[in-house]
Amino acid sequence: MEEKHRILILDDDLDVREWLQGVFEEAGFAVSVVADGKTMQEKLRSAPHSLAVLDLKLKGEDGLAIARELRRSSAIPIIMISGQGDETDRVLGLELAADDFINKPFSARELLARVRAQLRRTTELSIPRPASTSGGGPRFSFDDWVLDLSARTLTRGGGEHCPLTQGEFALLAAMVQYPCRIWSRDQLLEQTRGFDADVYDRTIDVLILRLRRKIEPNPQQPSYIRTERGMGYVFAAPVTRL
Which of 29, 35, 97, 101 could form a disulfide with 24 if both were Cys (CB 3.0 to 4.6 A apart)? Predict the structure, then answer.
């Protein structure tokens, strides 16, 4: 029997936790439910999890800080939820760690659709693409970085690992395979989030910002991912297929 995906839920509201747990269990997922960041870390150490659903606004804790810490130690998809509809919260959450963001109130159907979309992307990105569609071999290098499409890893130098979210990996993989090509935002959205997720205009800009912070020698003056004003983005560094 195929092992169930296990979903981690962090919310300090008991009623919300119980509702979310019921939604996921009824849909066939295994669930870990916690009310604080410390317990979340204990749960993550005790069992593998496929995805985390984290509340942005917690009593006595910073939900963004918890998400950021989780992202430093894990590449699992993170969906952040919040009762506030301010776009600034959404952008900030995506900039720091999240793969998706959903505002309360939301329906069980919408939440499950978001979760399944993220899990599909995780599965799709873990499967090597054939040479005819991947642009060649499964590994590419630029400067001292190596991107492995099969293992879904980005390493540098002596093997130092750079953790990437699902969206960051998909974006970088697309651009590295076609260096010097100018990508519009719509084209990159198709590569990173597909058509079944709720996206908005700044999604790609946020992913680009996060990638630059992780890989550029100077994120303020990027030499790898450059902006083509009025057109989109281009991967400008020389790339070697290994």
Answer: 29
Cα–Cα distance for residue pair 18/90, rounded to 1 Å: 24
Max CA separation in the chain (angstroms): 53
User: Is 72 within 8 Å of 48 (Cβ atoms)?
Assistant: no
pLDDT tier for residue 141 given thresholds of 50, 70 and 90: very high
The position carrying tokens 């083509």 is 228
The contacts of residue 107 (CB under 8 Å, 6+ apart) are none
Q: Say which amino acid occupies 154.
A: L
**Cα–Cα dist 164/8, whole Å:** 19
Going by pLDDT thresholds of 50, 70 and 90, the confidence category of residue 138 is confident
How far CA 113 is from CA of 17, 94, 106, in Å, comes to 18, 18, 11
Give the DSSP letter of residue 3: P
User: For residue 144, what are the β-bridge partners?
Assistant: none
